């Protein structure tokens, strides 16, 4: 019904008021329009109330007022006015008017989200239209359009399309027709086709929607020209479709065209202009141009708030839009403020549980979710769900809410709940769209895939993401940003499967699409660079990874403010690279930047903040700053526990890493407690016991048992972990490689070398297949295999592998990296074993230089380097420099760990070894005991570290001559080693060897041989015939045979030792020198002095080349040459060599050292043999001063030597006095050996004999015989000589029978001594 028909009979002044009102209404000057319409109603009420024409005019005015109230979102007012209009129309019995009012009522209900009431009104209107006008009327077509809109809003697209097509059928036209000829039906046709295009857009059928909208635009231009408001609407609609296709620049261009038309036609303060600003803002939002998005939303808001009441739906919507921008900027406070303003307006207009308030609750929930306030987020989502499900239980918005709720469950590691809720969302979407492809279904598949990924169900995850990808490609074609996201998601799964090449291919596909569709300055592009960087990191391509992360950071800094969360995440990623490179200070700097942003954006109690504390703790862990690490873990733990409670995967990860920390601190019981907590949580959350996370915890538990010396338990757990990893991840997964590696290391400590090498090679093969031969993890694998070869004595193979590891580490990490330093250190250890001490020192100093450049002066790795350099100097005999380096190391360790730590114990042990070499046995013993005290407090008494310290302490007892205590201590060590490692371990062989050496020092060669042969049996079984550890053992057996007079057997053992040593160690090794030295002693005993000299000379040449002219080994070799000449009676040559030895020892030890005293003593013996008694006494006195000052047991031997000079000078009383002093010293020393006491009795007897005091002599000889007869058979030759002396005494006393008896004993023992088997 036209305005002209209604106003024909109305007075001119009312018509003028009406025209003014309509003009204001068109300009959205609603209050002015209302003023004019109210004036008209007032005039009619006062003058023309009973006139039918005026009543119709009144009804028409009321409907205009209804339109204004709807536009102002004053729906209650609109409803009241519409009821008045309805009552008036009923009074007039005006069916056409009633139809209009029913349509208005439907519009009101639809705005109030009372969809069922709206549909009822539209259907009543439709029924009256059909009855009044018939079924083919354009007004009927319009009703079908309205009903279609209802079904469209409900997501029932098929029914909506059915309604729109009914409308088109009535007006009987096609868009290919010229709509200029359809004047009456034009608006209906355009509305129907536009609505159909909108349905296509909602169905993600963007190409069909775009095609239809372009046809609509062409017809509009043909009918209306290029600058009409309806043309602007078409540009707007096309812009929406292009936006949905992520064709942002084209979308922006369309919205700008629409805006320009609207500004020209409507001015700058019109609601349609506000709509265009809003649409432009949304394009900027998806382009991450947040400042522009906010600017345009604010422009829209200014127009809306000036045109409409501040308490309107449109104002609420504007607040909501601005809140969304702030949310994307991580400005949660501002975002929450906007959403709350929107909610307050809506609650003032609607009931608190109205459908339009539900999205606000959802948005507020999203803020809480982003802040990690999951309980608050869940409460908001459930409030939104409650409102929506009561009105439309199977609506797309319900599916979206289920999706949001599932996100929370996923963040809380409630994966089963998350999966169930995602599946609810998918079920609704499938029920709405059926088997048709829709982007919402693709999203559901992606979400479900993410859960399967979290559960390590990678095949299922891939299937879901591929389903999602197929839908997106079908809807959007290959070149679309959402397709890029799917490629990215698939790449993440390949990454988890350690299929790095496939992952990289997916990330690169994603990046290529994004660069072509959204340009190179979008956060999604930054995300692709991040994905590629992650793969490069895993592949050890750190420079490439850094380049990608920096590209990502450059984009984000250009798009966001400096304090945006995505920038914080990229700082975190950069820290990961720096950590992998060992650049811990730089990593820490990045994490602190990240933490600062997160604390500002999220506050303290947030999961992301907790994660950053966790990452910082890991850096401190690598830096060995354990207190700082523990503090950070505690912060992370407290936050995570407050957010998630105890049963959450993040809690398990925290406990796991705290277990690592405690393990590194040797707090093994606390470490195991943490691991058990982690395992319990993981087992409660993850149904599949073969899960990789569970396998990782078992692996760490095994490492702890390994460190505690529980090797069988460690192997058992590692094997279980490996089985789980194989089942969960397949045979060729990196975690399986790690498990093989861990088993190999335990087998190495168990000396099961074949098993160790087998496991390490399995690990290496997997790593090579995954990474290629230039990856950091492959370098570590080479390192571990090298250690195994080193333990087998295969030093060339070990050295070759260490060099491979060094080459990879240098190329990947640069020369100034701790792993490069570690490689130099490992090479240095091999050089030390090979006796290449100059080369060892060179590489150890390189290692120290790197570590000083990487770390602070007081870092543990710097301490380790000082220890290693100290070890080289120790082997070179440069004990003073060695001690300086070891004390530097100890000082650093004490500052880091305090007194009670294994590192400190190891330093005390190292310092004790130097004191041992310097013969400062008291100081050595104190340091060993300090080390032992720490070790006992850490490990208890049944640990290998304790056993090794018992051995070291035993060696000190032995060097002090306390062989019984030494043997007891070695046996205590043996008991520990056997209980920990079993009877057949190499460490057991070492214990037998140590005990054998003690028996050898005691002169008990029979017992020594038993021990040495036990050791030999184990070593031959474990190592085969040609191993470095057999070199010294064969030497020890050879010395035993030599002491037993079995010189040929002794030489045979030495030659075996020499052959193995030359093969493994080369000809210039200290152990080869020892072989020649021992053979020289044997040749001396065989009186084949030329061969002895040749062997001695070879030994001397080696040690001189190795250690220089001034070392203890050179001094010993000089001493050996002297003894050989002495045995030949070549005293001058002997004296010259002894003096050379003395000179070296004075330079090495100073003037107050045991070895110097012995050298003086040796020179004194030469002088005595040359009858240079005064010279002899002079040097004996020098020796005596040193030994007496140090209260050394050798004082007794020195008394004997001086006494022998007095004896030769016939100063018998002086000689007797000193021999008796020697005996008293020996008897007062509980560790003195019986054989030595017997010799003192013999020496006293000899003096009595020279004094012709034969009876006293016989008494002393009998005491000596009594002692020697209880000792091993090796002493028979000495007993024979004493029997011969006793024969002489009896002859002098004319006691012939006793003399003959002694003579027979002498002959018998002499014969036995001569006929000893060789």
Mean pLDDT: 87
Biggest β-sheet, characterized?
none
End-to-end C-alpha gap: 138 Å
Q: If helices are DSSP runs of H or I spanning 4 or more residues, what is the number of helices?
A: 63
| Strand element count | 0
Helix coverage percent of residues? over 70%
The Rg value, from CA coordinates, equals: 49 Å
* Fraction of residues in β-strands: under 5%
Oligomeric state as shown: single chain
Q: Which structural class is indicated by helix and strand composition?
A: mainly alpha
What global shape is seen? rod-shaped
Note poorly predicted spans: 1313-1318
List the helices and strands and how they pair.
Blueprint: H1 3-7, H2 12-26, H3 30-47, H4 52-71, H5 75-92, H6 95-111, H7 115-133, H8 138-153, H9 157-171, H10 186-202, H11 206-224, H12 229-244, H13 248-266, H14 271-286, H15 290-307, H16 313-328, H17 332-349, H18 358-370, H19 374-391, H20 396-411, H21 415-433, H22 439-454, H23 458-476, H24 481-496, H25 500-517, H26 523-538, H27 542-559, H28 565-580, H29 584-602, H30 607-622, H31 626-644, H32 649-664, H33 668-685, H34 692-707, H35 711-729, H36 734-749, H37 753-771, H38 776-791, H39 795-813, H40 818-833, H41 837-854, H42 860-875, H43 879-897, H44 902-917, H45 921-939, H46 944-959, H47 963-981, H48 986-1002, H49 1005-1023, H50 1028-1043, H51 1047-1065, H52 1070-1085, H53 1089-1107, H54 1112-1127, H55 1131-1149, H56 1154-1169, H57 1173-1189, H58 1195-1208, H59 1212-1228, H60 1234-1250, H61 1254-1268, H62 1276-1292, H63 1296-1314
Task: List descriptors.
1318 residues, rod-shaped
